Every structure is written in structure tokens, then in C-alpha cells.
Amino acid sequence: MQKISLGEKLTYTGSLLGQNMIYSFVAMYVMFFFTDLLRIPSETVTVIMVTASLWDAVNDILMGMLADMTKTRWGKFRPYLLIGPVVVAVATVLCFVNFGGSAAGTVAVAAVCYVLWGMSYTVYDIPIWAISSVSSRDPDEKNGMVTLGKIGGTVGTVIISVGSVALLNAFGGERSAGAYTAAALVVAGLGAVLMVLSGFVLRERIEPPPKGVPFRRNIHTILDNGPLKALMVALLIVNMVNNVRQVAQMYFAVYVWGDSGYVTYIGLSLVLGMISGMAASPALIRRFDKKYIFIISCLAGAAASAVPFLVDSGVVVSLVLLGISFAFTGVTTITSTSMLMDAIDYAEYKLGFRGEGVVFSMNTFLNKLSATIAKGLLGVSLTWMHYKDNMAPNDTVRLGFSAIVYVVPALCFLLAILPMLLYRLRSSQIETIRIELDARRGAGKGEV
After folding, report:
1. Is 280 among the domain residues?
2. Which CATH number is 86's domain given?
3. What is the 3-state secondary structure (H, E, C) of the chain?
4. Which pLDDT band, with edges at 50, 70 and 90, does 429 fall under?
5. Is the torsion defined by CA of 326, 331, 335, 338 positive or negative?
6. Is 1 among the domain residues?
7. Cα–Cα distance measured from residue 52 to residue 111, given in angstroms and rounded to the nearest whole number
8. CA geometry: angle at 162 spanning 156 and 163, to 5°?
């Protein structure tokens, strides 16, 4: 069995690092840029985000189907890893350009740019995660790749969380539209360079069927897969934990803790927590059932999230507790992605074909939908708080942003447990399924 090379592991980690630098910059600042720099009303921005998410529901699944039908001499997913970085970089910069013009024109251009960004991001995001499921036949190696990818992604997020304020200040500060354009050029350029390496270095070791899987059959990868459906609902909810914090952290740092510089410390708590949780996950997965790892992590994450809201613990203790909750988010992230790959094997066992593209397209869509719900929640909250850009803090604003950063994530942790109770794939069952699949593949090669 051919092993995944060190070069592939480093490239995969770096690619996800670059991708998440871009994603995090957009997630952290696009709403702030639209409302405070382009002067688009928060209600209108919320409509743009929700509309884009509805389109992503179609766009992501279509991309997954397209990837599953792709068969080239370079592989099933690698062609998209070469094309995607370029279009993502261009679309990212366009989202942070003030083109001027009328108010209506500004809204229209912002909406088009944001929708194009979501579409271009999909071209790369689905294949880069799906390729992990065909990188090796060894489940431990695949789990290792996922862990490295998630760690790389977390580091990319933290680089932006920690360094983006300084980058913006270097180009004119957080109230300068040109600063966001310049910063977007730097982040998108560096991210794209790291991302495009994946198309040259990564390899696909589980070959697709000779003919692509038709849409009508491929959709049954989801429709006839009970464990996958339960897992996807849980993912939609638990992804809200980080997404809510990400879109609100600038507002929280400015209006609750009184200084945008605290975004850097929130980023540090994220990297220390997430990487610790992710690094511990493979060992936990080898020893315990993944379902119970996920549930216990959600319970512990909810507790760590709620305490700073219930008890006036100060900035330092709050950062420590945030770091602990991020650690449990890291565990749920690796565990759930490993469970996704189990669900793909289950689909192949049950249906006779693998649907990596459609499964990871749904995973991508759920993360985007989660992020959009988070932005929608923030938009509604801004309206409820009568928020105005650069306003003086008051008790309503402080309470509102505190609830978004602490209480909402705690509730999401708890709610994610409910669908997971319906997930019934056990570790012993998955092992039996993989043995059967290896036997089938071996028999197929023998017939040839």
C-alpha cells in the first residue's frame, strides 16, 4: 500500500492554511466593510448574505456532482485544485473594492461580488476536502490528512485573526476602504500561491469508477444514508460555534472589551485551543467511539462557553475559557470529518459507488449556510440593538455582543447533540465495511 508522502502532507496543510486565510478575511470583514465602509444598511447586507447562501445550496451540490463525474488523466479532483485558487483570489479582492457610484449601484455590485466569491470558493473547497478521502486506503492515514488539513486551516484563521488588524493599520486603518482592498490583495495573493500547490503535489489513490456516476444515482449517496443525514444536521449546528464568533469578534472586541486589538488575543486563544483539540483527536478516535467523543466534547464546550457570560470573569479568564471551548470545537471538527469519510465508505458498501464530491459539497454548503445564519443573526442583532457605525457603547450593545459570543455558541453545542443521537454507525461496523470494500476492489482488479 503506497503511503502518503511527507511532501503531500506538508502541501495539504499549507493549502488549507492559505484557503482559510482567505476565508477568514472575508468572514471577519466583509459584513463590516459593507455596513461601515460602503454604508449599506445592515438589513440589506443580511438579505445579500441569505440570498447568496440560498444560491450556494444549488451551487455546492452541482459542484460536487461535477467533481464526481470528472475523469481526467490528472485525476478526479486535481484539475479543480489548479483552477480554483486563481478565481478565488480575484473574487476576494473584488469584495473589498469601493467602486463608488449610487447607493443602489453599490448594493448591486456588492451583492454580485459576494455571490461570485461564494461560487469561486466552492470550485476549490469541495475538491480539496474530497481528495483527502481518496488519498489513501488506510483510515488512519486519511484521518491524519484531515487532521493536518484542519490544523493548517486553523493556523490560517489565526494568522488573519492575529495579524489582520496590523495589516489594515499598515494600509490606513480599519476605517479606510482602501486599506481593506490592499489587505485583500495581500491575503488573496499569498493564499492562492499556497493553494495552487495542492494541484501539483497531491495524489488520488482510490480510483473512481470507469464512468462517472449520474446525478440521479449520486444523490442517493445522501438520500439513502441515514447516518450521513444525522451527521449533516449536527454539523450545520456545531459549525455555528466558530462562525458566530468569527463574524462578531471585531464588534465584540470594540464594543465590549473596548479595543479592536483584543481580536489578536481572541485569535491566540483560538489557535491554542483548536490545535490542541485537533492534535488530541486522532488518539481519541483510535480508543473511543466517535459518536461519544463528539457528544462529550459538545457538553464540555457548552459549559466553557457559558461561564464567561454567567460570571463576570474578566478578560484574561474569559480568553482562557474561550480557548478551552475552542479546544472542544477542534475535537468535534476532526471527529465529524472522520465520520464523514465513514459515511462515504458506508455509501459505497450500500450503493456500490463512492460519492465523495456530493458528500463534501454538502459539508461545504452546511459550513457556508452556518456562516450565513451567523451573519443573519448578527444582522438581526444589530437592528435590535439599534447599532450605528462608530457608535458609543451602551449596556444594550455590550449585552448583545456578549450573548452572541458566549451564549449562542453554548446553545449550538447543546443542540448539535440531538441529531447525533440518531447517528448509528459504530466503529466495529465501519471496520467490517472496509474489509468488505477492500475485498470487492481486489476482486474487481482480478477480473480485469
Report:
1. yes
2. 1.20.1250.20
3. CCCCCHHHHHHHHHHHHHHHHHHHHHHHHHHHHHHHHCCCCHHHHHHHHHHHHHHHHHHHHHHHHHHHHCCECCECCHHHHHHHHHHHHHHHHHHCCCCCCCHHHHHHHHHHHHHHHHHHHHHHHHHHHHHHHHCCCCHHHHHHHHHHHHHHHHHHHHHHHHHHHHHHHHCCCCCCHHHHHHHHHHHHHHHHHHHHHHHHHCCCCCCCCCCCCCHHHHCHHHHCCHHHHHHHHHHHHHHHHHHHHHHHHHHHHHHCCCCCCHHHHHHHHHHHHHHHHHHHHHHHHHHCCHHHHHHHHHHHHHHHHHHHHHCCCHHHHHHHHHHHHHHHHHHHHHHHHHHHHHHHHHHHHHHCCCCHHHHHHHHHHHHHHHHHHHHHHHHHHHHHCCCCCCCCCCHHHHHHHHHHHHHHHHHHHHHHHHHHCCCCCCHHHHHHHHHHHHHHHHHHHHHC
4. confident
5. positive
6. no
7. 8
8. 85
Considering the domain boundaries, does residue 308 fall inside one? yes
User: What is d(CA 239, CA 305) in angstroms, rounded to the nearest whole number?
Assistant: 14
Whether 2 is in a domain gets the answer no
Distance (Å, whole) CA 428 – CA 414? 27
pLDDT, tens digit, for every residue of 225-275?
788 888 889 999 998 998 888 888 888 888 888 887 788 788 788 888 988
- Cell readout for 34 is 459593507
Total structural domains within the chain: 1
> 16: Cβ–Cβ under 8 A, 6 or more apart, which residues?
128, 148, 149, 150, 152, 153, 156
For 171-212, write each residue's pLDDT tens digit.
988 788 889 999 999 999 999 999 999 988 988 877 665 555
Contact indicator for 375, 239 with CB cutoff of 8 Å? no
Range of the domain at 320: 8-447
pLDDT of residue 174: 78
Cα–Cα dist 375/27, whole Å:
9
Quick one: angle between helices 103-130 and 6-32, nearest 10?
Answer: 160
Q: Model pTM? A: 0.70
The amino acid that residue 345 corresponds to is: D
Q: At what angle do helices 290-310 and 314-351 cross, to 10 degrees?
A: 160
